[in-house]
Write a structure and sequence with these properties.
Layout: H1 3-34, H2 50-62, H3 65-69, E1 76-77, E2 89-90, H4 93-99, H5 102-111, H6 133-145, H7 160-168, H8 174-180, H9 192-204, H10 229-232, H11 235-244, H12 255-263, H13 269-281
Helix pairs in contact: 1-7, 2-6, 4-6, 9-13, 11-12
The protein binds heme C (2 copies).
One heme C binds near residues 207, 224 and 256.
Amino acid sequence: MSVRVLIIAAAALIIAAPVLWFGGLFAASELHLRDVSHVLSFDHPIPTNAASLERGRHIARTRGCFGCHGQRLEGWDFDEQWDWPERAVAPNLAAHARAYEPDVIEAAVRRGVGHDGRALTSMPSYNFTRLSDEDLAALIGFLQSAPVVEAALPTARLGWSARWSLLTGSDRRMSDWVALVPALSVDADTEPQLARGEYLAMTMCNECHGLDVRGQWFYQPPTPDLAIAPMLYSRAQFERLIETGVAADGRELGLMALVAPDRFPDLSDTEVDDLYAYLASLQDVAPAENVAWRPLD
Ligand code: HEC
Ligand code: HEC
């Protein structure tokens, strides 16, 4: 073989290797994202009366749909705010709720699988998986009734590092996180207030405080076990904390300060009471060890 042929072969390899590498990573990660169950099963009737629409609005406000999908539900491009390893684009929810059937929306909101049968990656479905059928139906009814505000949105893009993390298991598909969320455990017949508080905590606070609200250190920044809240804060101070995201001693609590004023002022006094009582009841219960969101190493 002449030197010339060798040089050409080496050059071809140098050009082909990255193409093969990135092509393989792309194909394998797409297969992984699509290897999820997309069984559609939600057939709860969607209410349209005024009380249900108001309930749906309250759920959308307190669960942060407006914060991420735009204050007019027109959609939002996350690149404007954060330098994520991907371009996350939250779609126009009012338009989406008209384009897709409620069972398709249920799979996305509660199970982390999008309309195209592909696992979601940024939408925090683990925070909504314990929403009741009634609340989800009221939420969908509200979204269908909200005026559609047209806004130009870029195409979402999953970055290479995000694809690599998903394939190597250093991060999970949203549907995998959803599957790890503990069941609600308080008996509503014997402990109605604690059951209401657990429902609120497990559909509002577990977005950031661990899937069981007992703290997490899988993602940065680590967030504390919420059993500490009633120890550190009186009922009045607690209300101020969750409505402003500012700690009793004036510390700004990062992401909490960003989302709390958008979501939690909409909570009623009873809801704040219920949440506070539930968090206080956790003080006697030891948090689970070595769960995915609080790994040992
Ligand atoms: C932390 C930000 C965030 C919050 C809070 C949030 N979303 Fe999303 N949502 C996203 C992003 C980003 C996407 C795009 C898909 C992805 O990247 O995972 C999305 C996608 C969706 C989709 C479309 C999924 C598909 O492709 O079929 C629906 C429906 C949806 N969200 C509904 C909701 C509802 C309802 C709420 C409130 C209960 C909500 N979202 C709260 C960020 C958020
Ligand atoms: C979007 C993410 C996010 C959500 C949702 C969220 N938190 Fe937080 N929270 C944080 C972060 C981040 C911190 C600060 C961690 C740090 O830097 O110490 C924090 C801190 C706290 C603290 C500690 C205050 C202190 O004095 O140190 C309490 C209590 C708390 N949150 C309660 C709640 C409750 C109750 C909810 C639900 C109603 C909630 N959080 C929802 C992100 C969040």
